[in-house]
Design brief:
about 100 residues, 6-stranded mixed sheet, globular, disordered N terminus
Length: about 100
């Protein structure tokens, strides 16, 4: 599901400083972990020659494809989901947790 629109940037933080890499069936897989605040957004790079984008639980996050090289992930509902961006020979897999930040 692709969402259109803009939202303010969140304080999304990477849970792992360097993404894990592996290879399966000739495809290079690069895994990222993001923790996002409910209502926030994160700008991410896309793999070269983007072919598909998929979300395991589309109610959790929405994707706005800004260009062939950049996407915006919007944190829509609390929970966990995976987002896969597939290129010709590379997959970027994002493990995303969206959480509500309690007021101080």
């Amino acid at each position: 599901m692709l969402a259109l629109g803009m939202a303010s940037l969140s304080a999304a933080r990477a849970a792992d400083p360097k993404p894990a890499e592996s290879a399966v069936g000739g495809m290079r897989i690069i895994e990222h972990t993001l923790v996002m605040t409910l209502g926030g957004t994160e700008i991410v790079a896309l793999p070269p020659n983007l072919q598909t984008a998929s979300i395991s639980l589309p109610a959790i996050v929405h994707i706005n494809l800004v260009s062939q090289k950049v996407a915006e992930i919007l944190a829509h509902q609390e929970g966990r989901t995976d987002v896969l961006f597939t290129g010709k020979d590379t997959i970027y897999r994002f493990h995303i947790t969206v959480q509500h930040v309690a007021p101080r």
